[in-house]
């Protein structure tokens, strides 16, 4: 993504979730987190016996397959019981073609291939465009592709923020119940994970926010 694309995404998301605040740095960090999570999920799915269930949004495999794999790859344990939302959409955004030979291409190679196809199409055309038409054709196509790319980024960031916002709403509702107890940070995190509708990233962000604000943390645990 270009710096302009990041700025546009941050501005648009910020206008939708103004109370949370959203900067270019937030966009970059969120995309970095999504990309790492997606790459790690791909590594698991490349192994024999694993598959992605679009209904449950989880990686599935027989227990013995999971057991064998986790012995060699303990860091993949989280994928056994936690959802991997929007895997196919993320694959469109981050994934590389897994073909071999001339069909294998990453994002940069696909851009070069697209440029070659455009040049080839121009050579094969029955008539040559005027200078004015020629100067407008490529920028217009680039604008369309750039808009599609920005829309994809905006869609994923907005979805994650909706999840986080929903989780914070659920925490706020919890503030209307219960009696005060003394909690360790570990117990605080355990109770946050029990709030329905939160993904792993949202749980961690809420935990970090409450850990940094003792008053909010006390209010939260007092109402459980």
TrEMBL record:
Domain Myb/SANT-like as annotated: residue spans: 1-69
Pfam families linked to this entry: Myb_DNA-bind_3
Bias (Polar residues): 119-134
Region (Disordered): 101-135
InterPro entries per record: Myb/SANT-like_dom
Parts of the chain that traverse the membrane: none
PANTHER family linked: EXPRESSED PROTEIN (PTHR46929), MYB_SANT-LIKE DOMAIN-CONTAINING PROTEIN (PTHR46929:SF3)
Protein name: Myb/SANT-like domain-containing protein
Organism field: Opuntia streptacantha
């Amino acid at each position: 993504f270009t710096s302009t694309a990041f700025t546009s995404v941050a501005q648009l998301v910020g206008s939708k979730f103004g109370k949370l605040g959203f900067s270019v740095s937030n966009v970059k960090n969120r995309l970095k987190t999504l990309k790492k999570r997606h790459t790690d999920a791909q590594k698991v799915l490349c192994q024999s016996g694993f598959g992605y269930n679009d209904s449950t949004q989880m990686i599935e495999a027989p227990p013995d397959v999971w057991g064998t794999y986790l012995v060699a790859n303990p860091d993949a344990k989280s994928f056994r019981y936690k959802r991997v939302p929007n895997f196919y959409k993320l694959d469109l955004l981050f994934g590389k073609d897994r073909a071999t030979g001339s069909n294998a291409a990453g994002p940069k190679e696909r851009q070069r291939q697209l440029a070659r196809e455009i040049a080839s199409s121009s050579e094969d055309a029955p008539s040559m465009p005027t200078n004015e038409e020629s100067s407008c054709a490529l920028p217009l196509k680039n604008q369309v592709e750039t808009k599609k790319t920005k829309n994809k980024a905006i869609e994923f960031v907005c979805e994650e923020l909706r999840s986080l916002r929903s989780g914070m709403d659920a925490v706020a509702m919890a503030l209307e119940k219960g009696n005060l107890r003394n909690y360790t940070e570990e117990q605080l995190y355990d109770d946050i994970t029990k709030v329905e509708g939160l993904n792993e990233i949202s749980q961690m962000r809420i935990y970090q926010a409450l850990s940094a604000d003792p008053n909010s943390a006390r209010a939260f645990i007092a109402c459980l």
